[in-house]
């Protein structure tokens, strides 16, 4: 670890720079479009909540917000649940084709989502899952599950195998060992995986918009509605941006204890 | 030491089903399109590798590819060390850590088109904070007109947007190191740099690999942010590979070449990632597990 | 090489400890001699690791002082204390070779390569690692890695004490014995003070000259294996040491005898005096190894009737369990004729029967 003062200074400097555009977005969200494109002002000279009002009074906004949160939550749970045993297998065992399979998993993230658009559309129409939260949750698993497996495997490999064996000698059954001993040791890995699954699913607009129409329509609608009669709706877009940060901030707040405060390997 | 056990396949099965199912079908569709000339929804002619050859010969493609490679390289060179540095600076626990985590993560949560939009205004000389500041410092900054400025803006925007990903991964990796290593290092009289070099960096190997691969492939596929910010301009100065692909497919409604190009695109990423992966594995070999 | 004194040493994690329960380590004063091998024995959470970390300097005590050879080191950081510590799992630098691992502490202290080489090869030979010096440390087996961890401690000639925090936890059982033997050899050769924390009594009793038994932050007894076995000063020691542990039977003292379940046991003169006017719980303690099973009651002074509950043939002896009033008594016997359900007499030899008031031994 570095000298406390140097590291705090560097961190604060970075955070300040990093928060400038965010502040700018907040700034824009409270201005009228005229003010945004008219002058440079560090704070709104004509403070207005109209942008937020537009969003909140838009019926598709509120439900869109909820819809997004539903399928993202589903995706988080599915992805992490499915990834945990797979990551454990990759970490602890050798088996036929394991290295190739591991790399192949990641290749699913190497295609622009646009490529999946048409085939997914056809697929989900066929199975009758169009316009459901489940469809989007499942579709997003294509890129989130490989990520989850990769991250979790990395953390699991950091735990020496002797810990497993000692636990078995001490009389733990595999499920008990996994839940009570192993998972707490990779807490930070699980926390960060959960957050990334949330994040990548939350910001993905193309698939989410394509696979839904009414019932499960996400906030993508407002996100991509950028042009009104008067031109580009900067203010509304900025307000939407501000509002979409909130759930993510909450998620990372909830997993903060998983990620921070490392687990010092204690008694087995 | 890993044990050999084919029954591990059962643990992998759920993952396999989810991913393979939704990945192989689209892939087959794309391959199908790439070898046909689709004249109309009902008429198509098999043309074999013709599209591939056409695509590869396209000079615009070479330009976009070159720009893309430079961009991704720049991204890696800046974001990886910067991310590590930030992770090292973040507090380990307590309310400070929680606050730092939330603040660091904010840029990641903004939808990508909004990111581009904000920086559009932010970078304007007349109405944007950054543009105005840079101009008043004497630089003639114009991301719409000047290629270099456009490049730098896209780069800085990407750094702002994605370095937190690297930082978060590295931070989680650092927190997973047991205290005993730091204690032993103190007893051994190790300097701070030695602690970084011999304990922290090696133990971050796994997360760094993920960070490098992720940043490479995501930057190689980047589309929305630069498109919204510069539209690919001025000219085609910031037209990267993804945008080039979209232009071809959407602009010309030609599924055949587009599909062929998608495949080539995918294979390029695959190749680079494979090389990176193998190289990092070799450099980092050590742990018996 | 170092005499360790603990003066009124205590530790509480919270700022203002009021009751004993607030202390992770109860204040104590103790001296450990130069060159001895000590084991800190106790169940999880008894404070033994806290004590170890205070001695090594990784934890600063909230209370009291630590002296090395008379010098106050309480505020000295770990690296200045001339100690080495071996942890529960091997802590090695996995990017380095075995040689570099062992040389690391010396290089950090500015040693010249030539002198470092001599020292490293010496320690490697002692630990039987000479053949592995050029290999990457990460590729070795777990016990070899622990030896490297230990080696890094031994390689510094100024090391005064080596502290072990349950170091054999992750080692295979059949290798544990080899490592333990190696530790004893090293102890003989280098004459360092060794302090070994464990919750395994077999490890403690075979490793150490003196065993310090701890429970709930308190040191309840320090002594040789024999002393702890034959004369436990605390009911916890009686219960924890031995397999099975000591029989602890609550009793009442009346008319110069100890009464259990309605039966009287005569007390020796010394015991009578010690127990006279004892306020609090009186417990009778007798080890299963010393309980005798006799056919007839004899004088009845030191025997009680009991019912046989079960008898198990352990190969080298019989393990029998009896019911005495409401209590269970275990005994290790060479022979036994009685079958389950029958009534026998148990004899508690007076010199082996110990009495505890509020868990502390009085007679």
Topology diagram in text:
The complex is a heterotrimer of chains A (268), B (289) and C (363).
Chain A: H1 4-29, H2 33-38, H3 50-57, H4 59-92, E1 93-94, H5 98-107, H6 114-126, H7 133-157, H8 161-169, H9 174-185, H10 187-203, H11 206-210, H12 220-224, E2 227-228, E3 231-232, H13 234-254, H14 256-259
Antiparallel strand pairs in A: 2-3
Chain B: E1 3-4, H1 8-34, E2 36-40, E3 43-46, H2 50-57, H3 59-89, H4 94-105, H5 112-122, H6 129-136, H7 147-175, H8 179-187, H9 192-203, H10 205-220, H11 224-230, H12 241-252, H13 255-284
Antiparallel strand pairs in B: 2-3
Helix pairs in contact in B: 1-13, 2-13, 3-7, 3-10, 5-11, 7-10, 7-11, 10-13, 12-13
Chain C: E1 4-12, E2 23-32, E3 37-41, H1 48-56, E4 63-68, E5 71-72, E6 83-86, H2 98-108, H3 113-126, H4 142-154, E7 161-165, H5 173-190, E8 193-198, H6 201-207, E9 210-215, E10 218-223, H7 225-230, H8 235-240, E11 247-254, E12 257-260, E13 263-266, H9 269-275, E14 282-286, E15 292-294, E16 303-313, E17 318-324, E18 327-333, E19 343-347, E20 354-357, E21 360-361
Parallel strand pairs in C: 3-8, 3-9, 6-7, 7-8
Antiparallel strand pairs in C: 1-2, 1-4, 4-5, 9-10, 11-12, 11-14, 12-13, 14-20, 15-19, 16-17, 16-19, 17-18, 20-21
Helix pairs in contact in C: 2-3, 2-4
Structure description:
The complex is a heterotrimer of chains A (268), B (289) and C (363). Chain A has 14 helices and three strands. Chain A has 268 residues and is mainly alpha-helical. Chain A has a single domain (21-259), classed as Orthogonal Bundle (MetI-like fold), CATH 1.10.3720. A two-stranded antiparallel sheet of chain A has the order 2-3. Chain A starts with a helix and ends in a 9-residue tail after the last helix. Chain B has 289 residues and is mainly α. In chain B, 73% of the residues lie in helices and 4% in strands. In chain B, a hairpin with a 2-residue loop joins strand 2 and strand 3. Chain B starts with a strand and ends in a 5-residue tail after the last helix. Chain C has 363 residues and is α+β, with helices and mostly antiparallel strands. Chain C has helices at residues 48-56, 98-108, 113-126, 142-154, 173-190, 201-207, 225-230, 235-240, 269-275, and strands at 4-12, 23-32, 37-41, 63-68, 71-72, 83-86, 161-165, 193-198, 210-215, 218-223, 247-254, 257-260, 263-266, 282-286, 292-294, 303-313, 318-324, 327-333, 343-347, 354-357, 360-361. Classes of the chains: A mainly alpha (268), B mainly alpha (289), C alpha+beta (363). Chains in contact: A-B, A-C, B-C. Strand 1 of chain A pairs parallel with strand 1 of chain B.
């Amino acid at each position: 670890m570095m000298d406390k003062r140097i590291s705090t200074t560097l961190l604060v400097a970075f955070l300040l720079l990093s928060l400038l555009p965010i502040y700018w977005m907040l700034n824009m969200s409270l201005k009228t479009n005229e003010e945004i494109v008219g002058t440079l002002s560090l704070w709104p000279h004509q403070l207005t909540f109209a942008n937020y009002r537009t969003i909140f009074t838009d019926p598709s906004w509120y439900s869109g917000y909820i819809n997004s949160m539903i399928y993202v939550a589903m995706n988080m749970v599915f992805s992490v649940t499915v990834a945990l045993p797979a990551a454990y297998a990759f970490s602890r065992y050798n088996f036929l084709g394991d290295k190739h399979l591991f790399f192949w998993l990641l290749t699913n993230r190497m295609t622009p989502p646009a490529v999946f658009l048409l085939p997914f559309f056809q697929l989900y129409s066929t199975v009758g899952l169009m316009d459901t939260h489940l469809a989007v949750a499942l579709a997003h698993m294509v890129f989130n599950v490989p990520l989850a497996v990769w991250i979790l495997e990395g953390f699991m490999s950091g735990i020496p195998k002797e810990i497993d064996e000692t636990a078995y000698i001490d009389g733990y059954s595999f499920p008990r060992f996994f839940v009570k001993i192993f998972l707490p040791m990779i807490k930070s890995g699980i926390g960060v995986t959960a957050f990334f699954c949330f994040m990548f699913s939350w910001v993905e607009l193309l698939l989410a918009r394509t696979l839904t129409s009414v019932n499960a329509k996400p906030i993508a609608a407002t996100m991509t509605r950028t042009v009104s009669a008067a031109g580009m709706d900067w203010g509304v877009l900025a307000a939407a941006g501000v509002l979409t940060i909130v759930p993510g901030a909450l998620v990372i707040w909830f997993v903060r204890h998983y990620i921070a405060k490392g687990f010092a390997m204690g008694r087995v | 030491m890993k044990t050999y056990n084919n029954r591990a396949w059962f643990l992998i099965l759920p993952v396999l089903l989810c991913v393979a199912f939704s990945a192989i079908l689209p892939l087959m569709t794309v391959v199908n399109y790439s070898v046909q000339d689709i004249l109309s929804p009902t008429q198509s002619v098999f043309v074999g590798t013709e599209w591939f050859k056409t695509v590869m010969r396209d000079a615009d493609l070479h330009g976009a590819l070159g720009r893309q490679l430079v961009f991704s390289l720049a991204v890696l060179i800046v974001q990886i060390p910067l991310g590590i540095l930030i992770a090292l600076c973040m507090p380990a626990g307590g309310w400070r850590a929680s606050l730092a985590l939330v603040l660091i993560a904010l840029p990641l949560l903004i939808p990508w088109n909004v990111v581009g939009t904000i920086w559009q205004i932010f970078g304007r000389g007349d109405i944007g904070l950054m543009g105005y500041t840079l101009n008043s410092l004497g630089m003639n900054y114009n991301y719409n007109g000047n290629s270099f400025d456009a490049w730098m803006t896209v780069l800085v925007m990407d750094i702002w947007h994605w370095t937190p990903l690297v930082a978060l991964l590295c931070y989680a990796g650092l927190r997973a190191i047991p205290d005993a290593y730091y204690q032993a290092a103190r007893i051994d009289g190790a300097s701070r740099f030695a602690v970084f070099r011999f304990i922290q960096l090696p133990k971050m190997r796994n997360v760094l690999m993920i960070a490098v691969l992720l940043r490479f492939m995501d930057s190689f596929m980047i589309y929305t942010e630069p498109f919204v910010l510069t539209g690919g301009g001025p000219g085609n100065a910031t037209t990267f590979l993804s945008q080039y692909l979209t232009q071809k497919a959407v602009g010309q409604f030609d599924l055949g070449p587009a599909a062929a190009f998608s495949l080539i695109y995918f294979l390029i990423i695959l190749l680079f990632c494979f090389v990176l992966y193998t190289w990092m594995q070799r450099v980092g070999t050590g742990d018996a597990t | 090489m170092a005499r360790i004194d603990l003066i009124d040493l205590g530790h509480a994690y919270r700022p203002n400890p009021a009751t004993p329960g607030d202390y992770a380590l109860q204040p104590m004063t103790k001296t450990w001699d130069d060159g001895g091998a000590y084991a800190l024995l106790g169940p999880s959470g008894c404070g033994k690791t806290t004590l170890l970390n205070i001695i090594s300097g990784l934890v600063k005590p909230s209370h009291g002082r630590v002296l090395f050879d008379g010098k106050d080191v309480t505020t000295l950081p770990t690296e200045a204390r001339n100690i080495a510590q071996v942890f529960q799992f091997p802590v090695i630098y996995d990017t380095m070779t075995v040689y570099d691992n062992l040389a690391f502490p010396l290089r950090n202290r500015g040693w010249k390569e030539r002198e470092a080489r001599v020292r490293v090869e010496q320690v490697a030979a002692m630990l039987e690692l000479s053949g592995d010096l050029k290999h990457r440390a990460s590729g070795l087996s777990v016990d070899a890695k622990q030896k490297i961890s230990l080696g890094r401690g031994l390689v510094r000639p100024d090391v005064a004490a080596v502290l072990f925090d349950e170091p054999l936890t992750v080692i295979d059982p059949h290798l544990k014995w080899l490592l333990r033997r190696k530790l004893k050899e090293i102890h003989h050769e280098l004459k360092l003070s060794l302090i070994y924390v464990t919750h395994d009594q077999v490890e403690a009793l075979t490793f150490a000259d003196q065993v310090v038994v701890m429970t709930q932050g308190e040191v309840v007894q320090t002594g040789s294996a024999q002393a702890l076995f034959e004369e436990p000063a605390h009911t916890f020691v009686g219960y924890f040491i031995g397999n099975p542990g000591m029989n602890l039977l609550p009793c009442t003292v009346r008319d110069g005898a100890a009464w259990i379940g309605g039966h009287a046991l005569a007390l020796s003169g010394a015991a009578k005096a010690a127990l006279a006017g004892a306020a609090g719980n009186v417990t009778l303690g007798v080890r299963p190894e010393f309980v005798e099973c006799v056919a007839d009651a004899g004088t009845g002074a030191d025997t009680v009737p009991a019912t046989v509950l079960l008898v198990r043939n352990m190969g080298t002896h019989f393990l029998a369990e009896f019911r005495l009033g409401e209590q269970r008594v275990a005994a290790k016997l060479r022979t036994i004729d009685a079958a389950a359900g029958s009534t026998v007499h148990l004899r508690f030899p007076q010199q082996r029967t110990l009495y505890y008031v509020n868990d502390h031994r009085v007679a």
